[in-house]
Write a structure and sequence with these properties.
This protein has 232 residues and is α/β, with parallel strands linked by helices. It has helices at 28-39, 52-60, 80-93, 113-124, 183-188, 213-231; strands at 2-7, 22-23, 26-27, 44-48, 100-104, 130-136, 145-147, 153-155, 172-182, 197-201. The strands form 3 sheets. Strands 4-1-5-9-6-10 form a 6-stranded mixed beta sheet, sandwiched between helices. Strands 2-3 form a two-stranded antiparallel ribbon. The protein has a two-stranded antiparallel ribbon with strand order 7-8. 35% of the residues are buried.
Length: 232
């Protein structure tokens, strides 16, 4: 059994109600639901939420909400792994036995069914516990700078001041879209970032973290530009 779990709590503070706030014509979470359904990978696509309005929206667009997430997993400090573990435990308690479980973030409008399928192929084709979306940094992280308390500038790695960009190792970061994992890994609480995980590489133009209103606006511009390109 393969399951998609879309975590979507109701208590977002920086962008109130962001999981169901309209984004390019649809509640934000709907883009993730539709990608999961379009992938054809799953026996069940569920939303894990503590919020009745989010649950109603999720059901309307084709996802299941078989339980309401408990309060202790719905505050600002609830991590992804415990939330997915809770969902896996629910299925087991109800007589199901998930083998692969994919966490898909509710605020990932650029996620595609094709990438989700590719993630499953990578997970099942490798000796690994997780396969998740990553992308490369646009600028060498070795040349990053900080602003000091005195409002001055200093490098994190001053030894690389004269190193050419092309001579620096490329660095990658979590794309914040989806995380395939074997059910046992979620149940054991294994951390996502480690040698037991394999990357699913995405192009930078299809990755946008959405935590602030500025992020939201930028994502909207990118999304509309991509749609216009497809429609040409």
């Amino acid at each position: 059994m393969r399951v998609a779990v879309i975590p979507a709590r109701g208590g977002s503070k920086r962008i109130p109600r962001k999981n169901i706030k309209l984004f390019c014509g649809k509640p934000m979470i709907v883009w993730s639901i539709e990608a999961a359904l379009a992938s054809g990978c799953f026996d069940a696509v569920i939303v894990s939420t503590d919020d009745t309005e989010i649950a109603e929206v999720a059901r309307h667009y084709g996802a299941d909400v078989p339980f309401m997430r408990p309060a202790e997993l719905s505050d600002d400090y609830a991590g992804t792994v415990p939330v997915i573990r809770h969902a896996v435990e629910w299925f087991i308690a109800n007589g199901e036995a998930p083998e692969q479980v994919c966490c898909i973030y509710a605020t990932a409008p650029f996620v595609t069914g094709e990438d989700i399928r590719r993630g499953l192929e990578i997970l099942t084709g490798n000796d690994c516990d997780y396969a998740f979306s990553v992308t490369s940094y646009a600028f060498p992280i070795q040349r990053a700078i900080r602003i000091t308390p005195a409002d001055r500038v200093e490098m994190f790695n001053p030894e690389h001041f004269n190193t050419r960009s092309q001579d620096l190792e490329e660095a990658y970061h979590d794309a914040g879209q989806f995380y395939w994992g074997r059910a046992g890994a979620w149940l054991e609480g294994k951390i996502l970032f480690g040698t037991h995980a394999v990357p699913v590489l995405l192009p930078r133009h299809r990755v946008q973290d959405i935590d602030t209103l500025e992020d939201w606006e930028r994502a909207g511009w990118l999304f509309k530009a991509m749609q216009a390109q497809v429609e040409r």
